[in-house]
Structure formats: C-alpha cells, structure tokens
Amino acid sequence: MQGYLLDTNMLAYWFDEERREHEKVVDRIDALGPSAPLGISAISLGETEYGHRCVSDADTAVQFAFRRFVNARVPRVLTIQRSTSTYYGQIRARLFNKFAPRNGKKRLRPCQLVDPLTAKCLGIQENDLWIAAQAYESNLVLVTHDKMDRLREVTSDLLAFEDWAE
C-alpha cells in the first residue's frame, strides 16, 4: 500500500472546513481507509504553529482545536533524522547542478559563491526541500498544492507528487 506525506497546505485544507479545498482533500483521505500510511512532517506542524501565532496568538481556541485534530487524525508525524540529511543533500545538489548561477558558460561551485546560495535562488522554499527529503527517505508520495516545478523537475526519478486539492 502506498503511503503519503501531506504538505502544510494539505494539512490546512484538511483541518479548515471553511477552505474551498477542504471537501476534496477529505474525500481523498477518506477513500484511503483508516489503515493507509498517512503522515505529516514536524516541519508542517511548525509552519502551522507559526501561522497561528502570527495571525491569532490570542485565539488559543483555534490552536487547541488544531492540535486536537492532529493528535486524533494524523497517525504519523515524521521528524528530521540524521539520515534525512543524506536525502536533503542529494536533492539540493540536484537543484544546484541544474539551477545555480553561472559564470559565463561554467556553473559556479559552492565554494566560489561569496554569499551562501539560498534555496530561493534555487527556486524552492527551504522547508519544502526538507519535507521533500523526508518523503523521499520514507518512500512516501508528497501530497501538495504547491507548484514546486524545479523540485519536481530534479526529483522526477526519486519522488512522486500528488495534488488532492485539484
């Protein structure tokens, strides 16, 4: 049975009944059945916690409801392990080799860059890169509504993506 790692936006759609994507995501999750390997990243929990605190720090009822939802409905929370760094490094190197700046026709090496090359320069958010590494490490389909075009391009042989909000 195929397993799935929900990105932060899928978790938000699943939790928030007011979102227009909610019903589609709930239908897909319900169709999997209760024993389907389904998880989220601890990074997604952190992103959601940050969002809650930025927009509704005083609204502890929403934060409490979200935590209760996650504890009741999400069977697995993936954390960053020492081994995750290997998968992260492999994916980020592919992004670098494909999209890093060039000096003429030659691609610059990491040690030649004056400033560290940010994930933004490579066309991906840093947290998404870690979440993708977790999905790859655990052989899970990454379920996201984000485009992640560059990431998809360099991991097409490593990682499967699905969008349950379409």
Note down, in words, how this protein is organized.
The protein has 166 residues and is an alpha/beta fold. The protein has one domain (4-162): Rossmann fold, CATH 3.40.50.1010. The chain is 49% helix and 11% strand. The chain is built from 7 helices and 7 strands. The strands form 2 sheets. A 5-stranded parallel β-sheet has the order 3-2-1-6-7. Strands 4-5 form a two-stranded antiparallel ribbon. The protein starts with a strand and ends with a strand.
What features would you highlight for this structure?
166 residues, Rossmann fold, five-stranded parallel beta sheet, two-stranded antiparallel sheet, 7 helices
Q: Helices and strands in order, then pairings?
A:
Layout: E1 4-6, H1 8-15, H2 22-32, E2 38-41, H3 42-56, H4 60-73, E3 76-78, H5 84-99, E4 102-103, E5 106-107, H6 126-137, E6 141-143, H7 149-154, E7 161-162
Parallel strand pairs: 1-2, 1-6, 2-3, 6-7
Antiparallel strand pairs: 4-5
Reported CATH architecture: 3-Layer(aba) Sandwich
Task: Report how far the terminal alpha carbons are from each other.
Answer: 23 Å
Under CATH, the homologous superfamily reads 5'-nuclease
Total helical elements: 7
Strand order of the largest sheet: 3-2-1-6-7
DSSP strand count: 7
Unreliable stretches: none
Could you estimate the helical fraction of the residues in percent?
40-55%
Q: Please summarize the sheet with the most strands.
A: 5 strands, parallel
Count of domain modules: 1
Structural class: alpha/beta
- Cα Rg: 17 Å
| CATH topology call | Rossmann fold
Mean pLDDT: 87
- Strand residue percentage: 5-15%
For the record, what CATH class applies?
Alpha Beta
